[in-house]
Amino acid sequence: MSRRWFSSSVLALALIAAMAAAVVDLARQAPLNVLIVTMESTRASDFTAENLPKTFAAAETGLRFTSHRTISAWTAPNIIALLGGVSPYAQGVHARDQALPADSRLPLEDLAKAGWRVAGLQSFMAVGVFDHLGVGFEPGKNLLPWLAALARAQRPFVLWHHYLETHLPYAPPESHRPVLDGLIARTDAAARARIEAVMTQPVIPASSVAFKPSDRAAIRALYLGNLRAFDDWFGNLWSFLERAGLLENTVVVLTADHGEELLERGHVGHASTTRAGHLYEEIVRVPLVLWAPKRLGIAVGVVERETHHPDIAATVMRLLGKTPSRPIDGRDLFAEGERAWDGMSSRAGYAEPDPARVTQFVYARKEGRWKLHIDMAGDAVTRRALYDLDADSGERTDVSAREVARAQRMEAAILAKRAIMRPPSMAQTHAAIPVERPIWIFPRQGAVLGYDDFGGRIRLEWRGVPDGAYVIAYEAGTGAQALSGELSVTGAVKDFGKIERAYWNRFIVPYRNFRVRVGVAGRPDLWSEWLELEAQAAP
Predict the structure, then answer these.
(1) Would you give the DSSP letter of residue 305?
(2) pLDDT tens figures, 192-214
């Protein structure tokens, strides 16, 4: 062996080692991805290894927070809190058709400007309540192919994905559907009708169905069936993340928008479905699991310290090494020490009868073991109750008469926050104002529309100005299911993107009858005719 050959070999090996070290160094310095998965209507108490075995198997490699709370009784404020780090008092989003200010400048906007692709792929995200979050919505794209494409391109991303199928109606697939004969009597037609409502209706307003305590076993079994279907879905997602190598450079967050009542107070659902919203523990206690790439050196295990939804945004920014341009109302999930929790919600959430004039709110504050609820109509407190959660985790015994000073001090803290909270404001657009009445192009008047008539992509189109400011007014359903509102639109098309057949059947078809018209923003004299439409079930 010549000395020259030996020297060349040593040099080559040294170069290879240096290159390998550089690659490892580069990987360590490369921007992280973030995948945030939110489950719809999922209670912390039911987030167990028995109900979600695949999810819990994955959770063993992450960090599970067992005392995590959301901040509202319906979806939008909670998503704004966890993605934007904005407290419920600072949002001004308390019903449909409301939105954050256009100049909010939330953390996700900072990340987008720094090079991350910040996205949401689902059609329902196109509604106004999610405007100005900093998420670039890409409706109609499929989750796994989207992730695979970005993994191949090595482009950092922040993706929010919301799993909707745990929402009412509780209609799990056959593989997870309970046998109801053992839970309700075959001959009890009234009980079967009540359970049928739970299995078919996306909203069940308070008092529209006279539930009985004996219904709870069947309702809970159906609800858990939906959770087990999620577990299958998440198991597939987790396997994909492992195969694609995304877990090596992706922070994964799994939580829920809010919990769900299963007859604890006589209702099924949450604010937007019951229209009798509250902030009891079955609504605000939600699961939270965080997985971090090994390079971050974060230990796995269980964290019992109390955490809140705005903390998620603070933690994501810290893990990505970015300082938000505006203060975040939360703090790092890993910060030591306890602090008070505050929640607030309109009574009917998305389904408020008049979004421009929301008058009834529920508030809650937790300090250690004590939790105070107050309800307000206008400026009047209509109800107050204090609970000792250590002795009364179900919040059944009001101890405010015994703990007068404590209740008064906690109520004063709530009212002080309320006094400076941002008032609700309707979503607005600043596009050009057309001068002609819109004329419908699609759909046609009086259509009975099936899923295939839309080609699986929900789209409204009218003759108008491409950059014009328009408003879509809609009325859906009848009776207890009735819902109406307005959407601000720029341009002559409102495209909600591709939706799945299951979504169409679960969340569109139950409303059956729809009326839609489009008008010029700020011009009450320039409305199209009403379109009378009927949604038909997809095979």
Answers:
(1) S
(2) 999 999 999 999 999 999 999 99
Give pLDDT tens digits for 13-70.
343 334 333 333 433 457 899 999 999 999 999 999 999 999 999 999 999 999 999 9
Q: Which helix (H) or strand (E) holds 493?
A: strand 493-498
- Provide the domain limits for residue 502: 439-535
What does residue 304 show for φ and ψ, rounded to 5 degrees?
-95, -10
Whether residue 110 contacts residue 135, with contact meaning beta carbons closer than 8 Å, is answered with: no
Per-residue pLDDT for 440 more than 80? yes
Are residue 398 and residue 501 in the same domain, yes or no?
no
Q: Distance of CA 505 to CAs 75, 366, 371, Å? A: 21, 39, 40
Question: Exposure of 107 by Cβ count < 10 A (0-12 exposed, 13-18 middle, 19+ buried)?
Answer: buried
In contact, 204 and 269? CB cutoff 8 Å: yes
User: Structure pTM?
Assistant: 0.88
Where does 63-188 have alpha helices with state H? 75-84, 88-91, 107-113, 143-153
Q: Do 190 and 154 share a structural domain?
A: yes
Do 481 and 393 share a domain, yes or no? Answer: no
